[in-house]
Amino acid sequence: MSSLSRTIASPVTLARRVTPQPVRNVLRAAYDRLSYAVAGLPPRRLRGWISPTWFDFHDTGRDQLEFFVEMAGLRPSHRVLDIACGVGRLAIPLSRYLNGRGSYDGFDIKEELVDWCRSKISTRRPNFQFQLARVATRWSPNEQISVDRYCFPYQDERFDFAYAGSIFTHILPGGACNYLEQTSRVLRPGGRLVATWLVYNKRTLELTQTTGSVEHSWKFDHGEYRVKDDDQPEASIAYEEGAIRRMYAEAGLQILEPFRPDASYNAARIPSNRSEGIHLHHCLCVIAMRPNDTRRASHSSQPT
After folding, report:
1. Mean pLDDT of the chain
2. Residues of the chain with pLDDT > 90: what percent?
3. Cα–Cα distances in Å, from 45 out to 29, 105, 256?
4. Torsion-angle region of residue 278: left (phi > 0), alpha (psi -120 to 50) or beta?
5. What is the pTM for the complete model shown?
6. What is the 3-state secondary structure (H, E, C) of 17-43?
7. Rounded to an integer, what distance in angstroms lies between the CA atom of residue 121 and that of residue 13?
8. Cα–Cα distance for residue pair 220/199, rounded to 1 Å
9. Does residue 71 contact residue 260 with C-beta atoms inside 8 Å?
């Protein structure tokens, strides 16, 4: 029976095959408008750029904001930076939390996501701004500036709080070091960074005899990090814990122990059929602070 069910298309698949593309486009647009009017959801195709469709958009945004307040000291008057902001998963709940003294800036490499946020969020909250990041990645290969040379388009010490959700899981070490240094530069003294990483500890894996799990998910070992696919390394990158600690120290950021389960990217989000998302067992959140001392001179570069 199971083999037969795999050979018979579902009703949805059959409908797609027989419905002309222009009609499908009209229906999709109508569905997107209804989703936004009823539930405040961005179009499904845009949400698909930032996370799997089984990843609940509103619940994860709400839980992430609650985590910021309870665990990382976010306040309504803070100036917030959202690194790789996507399509408003965090900006939408923040728009109901930050007061008139607070502000939000987000940037992303996908122009369509930035445009949606500007039209749906900035028009209602002028203190919420979104910028297109013209940086070369797997998903934006035609840009000229590499991740390890990209300068965040903000002045020094502008922000009280920064968030990088599932961005270091797609950046190789040179870019990760640069993004940490740029974050340190734009944070005020005492400012916080909350970031998610795919983490493993070599010694712990050896002691618990679970090395095979990491080796299965990220087959290609590069010493301080592992990747799922050597041909497309940015698809998924896991870092050895010691490498993460070193990069934070070099960027002038103090880790506020311990590493914690993230509010959004955690094992509780894995679908019940367990067909996807098992890697979330390795996803942890690092909360860090820019200390009140002087930063390294290399952090001082800023946009002109």
Report:
1. 83
2. 59
3. 11, 23, 36
4. alpha
5. 0.81
6. HHCCHHHHHHHHHHHHHHHHHHHCCCC
7. 34
8. 15
9. yes
Mean pLDDT within 86-90: 91
Q: How far is CA 38 from CA 41, 42, 77, in A?
A: 8, 11, 30
Rounded Cα gap, residues 142 and 139, in angstroms? 9
245-266 burial by CB neighbour count: b if 16+ within 10 A, else e?
eebbeebbbeebeebbbbbbbb
Q: Which residue, among 177, 196, 199, has the nearest Cα to 251 in the 3D structure? A: 177
Walk me through the domains of the chain, giving residue ranges and CATH numbers: 1-39 (no CATH), 52-300 (3.40.50.150)
Residue 61: which of 86, 80, 81, 79 has the closest Cα?
A: 86
Give the separation between CA 180 and CA 131, rounded to whole angstroms.
Answer: 19
Q: Cα-flanking dihedrals φ and ψ of residue 188, to 5°?
A: -75, 160
CA atoms within 13 Å, Cβ hemisphere of 150 = 27
Please write the tens of the pLDDT for every residue from 204-252: 776 666 656 788 889 999 999 999 999 999 999 999 999 999 999 999 9
Strand ranges (DSSP E) for 151-242?
A: 159-164, 187-200, 220-221, 225-227, 237-240
Token look-up 């094992």 returns: 267
What span, in angstroms and rounded, lies between the C-alpha atoms of 288 and 168? 14
Which residues, including other chains, have CB under 8 Å from residue 147's CB and lie 6 or more apart? 135, 136, 137, 171, 172, 174, 175, 178, 179
Over the stretch 158-210, which tens digit does the pLDDT of each residue have?
999 999 998 999 999 999 999 999 999 999 999 999 999 999 988 777 666 66
